[in-house]
Amino acid sequence: MASTGGKKNGAGQYFLATLLLWLVSVVFEIVFNSRTELLWVICGGCFFQLVNWVVRSWQSRDPIFVNTSVSLLHSIITSASVVFILLNQYLASKGLEEMFDHSELVGGTWKWAYQALCFSCGYFAYDQWDMLQYRLYSGLIPSILVHHLVLLVCFTLALYRNVTINYLILTLICEMHSIFLHVRKLRRMAGIRDSNTALVKLEWVLNWTAFVFARCIPHILITVKLVRDAHKFGNGIELPLALFGMAGMNILNVGLGLDMFHAFRREKSNRRNQENINHEE
Question: Where are the domains of the chain?
Fold first, then answer.
């Protein structure tokens, strides 16, 4: 539900200012430093804004429905891209050991990884703008806006310095789980809330499976890898930034898991109540 919290505490103005500063920074790099490869960031933002307009014009003007639909498309595109990049690199390398070697993850760039990361960076900028425009956030310090700002900072610095690109591609495996989060939200908005149906039960199975294997485990493994290889990093900001980012992601995963658990229990409780009513009748 859209919130007017931004008017009361200035959160919206702050995050809008950071988004504008980010845009100025990207445009500066493209124009004055001839970083034309960063045009993929602009392309990503424009593409998802175009999809937003199409959904708003042809499907629904509900800001939450539009935002969730575009987010679902991003999760599908990103998941397919990550799988393609990993399979392509696996076939081109001598095995997983070479593929996940520290030097490869930090200093190397798998084929199409840079473009994919730019495209996702553009999406997060678009999504930040969409949520600010329609106030799709709540709270004194909106966690979703903080999440997007942290991702924009981490992704953009990596793209500028051309380091840890492959690490960041691995973090995007979690978009496979995001697909089911967005599907659940759209399903409920469409009025399909009967938890007794096989479709909803299957959705929950896939949701929990993806949460564990596409979000929690990959992020934990990435964090462990960073800690184990800490001595291999230089004296730059790469390691502190990577550890900070992964700590934030793992904390968010815990919160997300709790939210999913509460939602699951709530739907299960509603199902039992409905069964009791039907039995009494």
Answer: 10-274
